[in-house]
Amino acid sequence: MDTTQLLKGVLDAAVLAVVSHEDGYGYDVVRRLRSAGLDNVGDASVYGTLRRLYTAGSLSTYVVASDGGPNRKYYSITSQGHHALAEQRITWAAFTQSLSALLNNAASQDAAGAPPSGAVSNGAALGNTALGNAALGDGTPHGAQRLDEYADPVPQPPASTIPAASEAARHSLTGADHDA
C-alpha cells in the first residue's frame, strides 16, 4: 500500500505529536518523524505543515543561535495546538476502530469464503461503528434507513482498546460528550 496519501491526511497530527514531546527545528522534526517509522515523509511537506500550523496558532516559534551555522527556528506547541492534538487523537481512535472493524470483517469473510461478486454480506460495514453512526448524525436523513438495521453487526474491539487519554481529553477539553 502506498502510504503517501495516508500520510498527507495525518501529517498535522504527527507533527503536533512530535513537537508536543519536545520543541524542534524543521529538520529535527523531519528526523524524528522518520525515526518513528514515517520513512516516506518529505522535507517540504513537513516544512509546509510547520508553517501552516504556526499560522493557525497551533505552534509558536523562537530562534536559537547555532554554533555551526545559521540560527535555527524552533517550534513549540501552544495551548491551541494541544487542544487540536487532543481532538485529532479522538478522531484518529474512532477512525482506526472503524477501519479495523471493516478490515477484520473482510478478513473473516475471506477466510470463510468470499461472498459472490456483487453480494453484500454485511451492509453495515461502517454503519455500526462510531464513525459510521456519526456520519448519520443524530437522526437519519429523510427517507434513509440506518445500515445497522439490516445487517449483522460488525465486531467491535473492546472499549479498553481506545486510549484512555482520548476519553479523558474529550471530557476535559469539551466538558461534554459528543460523537467521534
Automatic annotation (TrEMBL):
Question: Known Pfam families for this protein?
Answer: PadR (PF03551)
Q: Species lineage, top-down?
A: Bacteria, Bacillati, Actinomycetota, Actinomycetes, Micrococcales
**Taxonomic superkingdom:** Bacteria
* Species assigned in the record: Lysinibacter cavernae
Q: Quick one: where's region Disordered? A: 136-180
Q: What is this protein's record name?
A: PadR family transcriptional regulator PadR
Q: Indicate the segments forming the Transcription regulator PadR N-terminal domain, all copies.
A: 15-87
Q: SUPFAM superfamilies, alphabetically?
A: Winged helix' DNA-binding domain
